[in-house]
């Protein structure tokens, strides 16, 4: 199989379900993850190791991760909000752990009741935990700069603060950095500027990923802008599942199938079978009747004569 040009991580089972009211049965979560993996999605963020009393949706985190770990060729990702969650995730066999750190102090205090500096200190302790693992099964640690493009509590987030947090996370032991537009404030110019700044500060070879929400309709434009400045790792959600707790009725993450369509029609290989992916969207959410879904390509259909990258001459 040809190497992919961009790596798309489906984050619906975590970011989407985190913002969905009803509980998705464990069997349905597993079926969804299996179906997307079978469509060629290389990485899926499958759950969050947050206390079940805070977010009951993730009461089955261990079981869902064990299932994802059993799927060949898939890289499962898990979110951990704190040290305790990291311990739980590693004990459950997590191979790739994503830790969100709010660049916005107001968001950090409201979300995890810690200052950004305290959250970075805790991240360093998680990195020590990971480093203590046997070399051949050491988990990867992703440091995600949340609210990197603005915050619904604080408003503007200084770009210098984002660069500072990104550098601190690398220094603390992150294997890669993600810049997250947590509340959907970003615009394409800002995306290019901020990714360039972080890239310049952090070095040419250090992995940097993008996490965009489509809250204000600029998700795809922002993903394209990030691609144009060299970003090759993107998070997205099938059907744009999820919403924004601060903006009722607003859509969730960038829509996976639309993102795949954009890249494939540009000749950028995602490794994902778009037809199969659209089929997954039709079946995966049946057990979640109140799920609000978004996106275009699943409704409009593929253009006549459309050739995905994988089938192009
Ligand atoms: Zn998100």
Compact overview of the structure:
By secondary structure, the protein is an alpha/beta fold. Helices cover 40% and strands 14% of the residues.
Can you tell me about this structure?
The structure is a single chain. With 313 residues, this protein is α/β, with parallel strands linked by helices. It has a single domain, classed as TIM Barrel (Alpha-Beta Barrel), CATH 3.20.20.70. It is built from 12 helices and 8 strands. It has an 8-stranded parallel β-barrel, surrounded by 9 helices. α3 links the parallel β2 and β3. The model has no long low-confidence stretch (mean pLDDT 94). The chain binds zinc ion. Zinc ion (ZN) is lined by residues 15, 180, 182, 211, 213, 253.
Total of DSSP H or I helical runs spanning 4+ residues: 12
Q: What CATH architecture would you give?
A: Alpha-Beta Barrel
Q: What's the helix-strand series?
A: EHHEHEHEHHEHEHEHEHHH
Largest sheet, in brief, is: 8 strands, parallel, barrel
The helicity comes to 40-55%
List descriptors.
alpha/beta; binds zinc ion; TIM Barrel; 313 residues
Task: Explain the layout of strands and helices.
Layout lengths: L6 E4 L1 H7 L7 H13 L4 E6 L12 H9 L5 E5 L3 H9 L4 E7 L2 H8 L3 H16 L8 E7 L12 H14 L3 E6 L6 H15 L5 E5 L6 H10 L4 E4 L19 H10 L8 H11 L12 H4 L13
Parallel strand pairs: 1-2, 1-8, 2-3, 3-4, 4-5, 5-6, 6-7, 7-8
């Amino acid at each position: 199989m040809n190497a992919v040009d961009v790596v798309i991580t489906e984050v619906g089972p975590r970011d989407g379900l985190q913002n969905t009211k009803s509980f998705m049965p464990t069997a349905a979560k597993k079926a969804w993850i299996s179906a997307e993996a079978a469509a060629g999605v290389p990485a899926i963020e499958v759950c969050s190791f947050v206390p079940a009393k805070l977010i009951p949706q993730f009461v089955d985190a261990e079981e869902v991760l064990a299932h994802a770990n059993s799927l060949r060729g898939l890289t499962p990702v898990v979110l951990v909000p704190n040290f305790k969650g990291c311990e739980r995730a590693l004990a459950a066999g997590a191979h790739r752990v994503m830790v969100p750190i709010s660049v916005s102090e107001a968001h950090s205090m409201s979300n995890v009741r810690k200052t950004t500096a305290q959250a970075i200190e805790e991240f360093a302790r998680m990195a020590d935990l990971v480093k203590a693992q046997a070399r051949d099964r050491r988990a990867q640690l992703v440091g995600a700069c949340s609210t990197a493009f603005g915050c619904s509590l604080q408003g503007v987030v200084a770009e210098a603060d984002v660069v500072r947090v990104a550098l601190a996370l690398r220094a603390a032991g992150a294997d890669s950095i993600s810049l997250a537009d947590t509340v959907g404030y970003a615009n394409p110019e800002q995306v290019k500027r901020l990714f360039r700044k972080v890239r310049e500060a952090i070095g040419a070879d250090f992995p940097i990923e993008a996490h965009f929400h489509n809250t204000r309709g600029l998700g795809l434009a922002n993903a394209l802008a990030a691609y144009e400045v060299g970003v090759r790792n993107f998070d997205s959600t099938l059907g744009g599942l999820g919403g924004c707790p601060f903006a009722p009725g607003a859509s969730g993450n960038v829509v996976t199938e639309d993102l795949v369509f954009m890249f494939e029609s540009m000749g950028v290989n995602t490794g994902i079978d778009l037809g199969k992916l659209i089929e997954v969207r039709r079946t995966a959410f049946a057990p979640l009747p109140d799920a609000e879904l978004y996106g275009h390509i699943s409704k409009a259909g593929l253009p006549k004569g459309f050739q995905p990258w994988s089938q192009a001459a």
